[in-house]
């Protein structure tokens, strides 16, 4: 599943990100490079699928 993400806030040294395809999905990451792994892990927990099943697309 492809997840297109956007940064909803950036405070306290963390980025809070959400996925367009899964409105209930929210994750935090310390750096931009950490965002894909954080989102894959959060998505996997929500739908009980392996993190590898998710492809994160960031439009910076």
SSE pattern, N- to C-terminal:
EEEHE
Could you give the count of β-strands?
4
The overall pLDDT average reads 91
> β content, as a range?
35-45%
User: What is the CA-atom radius of gyration, in angstroms?
Assistant: 10 Å
Major sheet summary line:
4 strands, mixed
In the predicted model, the low-confidence regions spanning at least 5 consecutive residues are none
Q: In percent, how helical is the residue content? A: 10-25%
Head-to-tail CA distance between termini: 20 Å
Spatial order of the strands in the main sheet?
3-2-1-4
Question: Per the principal axes of the C-alpha atoms, what is the gross shape?
Answer: globular
Helix/strand/pairing class, anyone? Answer: alpha+beta
Our count of helices gives 1
In short:
This protein has 1 helix and 4 strands, in the order βββαβ. It has one helix at residues 35-47, and strands at residues 2-11, 14-19, 26-29, 55-58.
What does this structure look like?
- With 60 residues, this protein is α+β, with helices and mostly antiparallel strands.
- The protein has one helix and four strands.
- The chain has one helix at 35-47, and strands spanning 2-11, 14-19, 26-29, 55-58.
- It has a four-stranded mixed sheet with strand order 3-2-1-4, with helices on one face.
- The relative contact order is 0.27.
Which helices and strands, and how do they pair?
Layout: E1 2-11, E2 14-19, E3 26-29, H1 35-47, E4 55-58
Parallel strand pairs: 1-4
Antiparallel strand pairs: 1-2, 2-3
């Amino acid at each position: 599943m492809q997840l297109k993400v956007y940064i909803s806030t950036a405070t306290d040294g963390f980025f809070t990100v959400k996925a367009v395809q899964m409105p209930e999905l929210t994750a935090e990451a310390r750096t931009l490079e950490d965002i894909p792994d954080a989102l894959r892990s959060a998505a996997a927990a929500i739908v009980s699928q392996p993190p590898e099943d998710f492809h994160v697309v960031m439009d910076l």
